Cytochrome p450 (Galdieria sulphuraria), 504 residues
Amino acid sequence: MLQLWIVLVTFSCLFLYVFILPKWRNRHIPGPRPSLLLGNVSELSRQGGTAPLVFERFRKQYGDVFQIWSFYRQIVVISHPDDIKYIIVTKNFPKAEEFNLSLSPLAGRGLLTVGKSQHQERRRAISKHFNEDFLRQLHRHMRVELMILLSKLQQVTERKESIDFDKEATSYTLDVMCRTGFGCTANTQEDASHPISRAVNVSLREMYHNLVAYPIRNCFGLYSSPALKNATGVIREFASQVIEARRTESEEDKTRRPLDLLDIFLKMDNLSDQNIIAEIATFLVAGHDTTSHTMSWLIYEVCQHPEIEQKIQQEVDTIWGDRQDWMLSFEEIGQLEYLNKVWKETLRKHPVAATGTLRRLDTDVTLPSCGMLLRKNTAILVPIYLVHRNPEFWPDPETFEPERFTRENTMKRHPFAFQAFSNGPRNCIGQFFATHEALTTLSSLYHFFTFRLACRAEDVKPYHAMTMKPSVGKVSEDAKGVSEYVKLPVWVTPRNTMAHLREE
């Protein structure tokens, strides 16, 4: 009997210390009322894929700073630019370990997840190679993949069928990232069954589950998810084979091809093959999914604003002239001022990395926007979705308005109110290439085609799982060529002929 009482008392004290005391100590921070055991998990998971929308409802109710609880884990959510600057730049607090561990099965200790002490050196070593000459080489990598995409769209117009644009864009950007990363293609645009495509999608999904279910799944590593273990194995094997082939490449073959990311990593000192694989995998997974979904959201918004589409096409056609080619030059992409505004407004309204970054305080802090005290070891979430919808800095945030990004409006706005690529020492190293890739692709798409939604605009909903993508379960009755469940069905109409374009 005594032993039973000891067990009960021990369990009660442990429950009090883990689940009740932290909530009581942080009662001064506003937020939805948590249950003692689950916290706010039930409300956050009630409808899958809608976490950013739930956060937005909480922000409207509790303000720019509020807390949520995942079982015993406290997460303070901030969305005021002054606080963001303080957390990620002034103090540059480290990324939370749960973020690093959840992504480590694929990203290892690459640039995305490496600790604060090593990040600066690794970042500097990579950044010195990301010059204009190298980015010109990456521009060359896009030519073949872009031609395949345009040809597929042309075939759709001839068959008078609709197409799932997000699906096609995701295959396209994955092939582009394979070329820019490894110097070879996975050819997923023409072979949807390629194992690398499924492996990337599974990895993204399972790593998101790791983060949501932390630390339960992480305690068992890859054994908690056989699907993740298999997917990361496919990606790593693919990368290993390419690395081995590169090391045995002849000088003649090397001089004939454009440079890629693998060239950069192989030149770096003290970078093991496992670290090279981690870096390439990070660029591959993060680089293709974010760009493809953002292009899809742009198509979605422009389809609802014919006047914006007309301005894009006028700008593109003026630069294009009468050339017989399927893409603009590297220099000409920089002249796409209006399309760049549309791109930024899409990143503002539909930030694909909607839940942003997760940091961990290594000291007590007082938030500058409100004077609220946060204790050491508090996890801080910076959801880009909330930052970009803060009406104090983005009036009428639900309106799609590219003019927000004129030079004059940008100068007047708080510099940390736009977080599409984050800010500070850990901002996105690939942001210039992502923008360049998107503008290059979109300029060709709008030169050769016009797009219209094959569903009602209100039927397209955001679905968030690591990245935020469009999703619609219902298409127009006359839509052909797409499955019943799609992400973004569109009609494609030709504008300019592709008949005389030369192929390489």
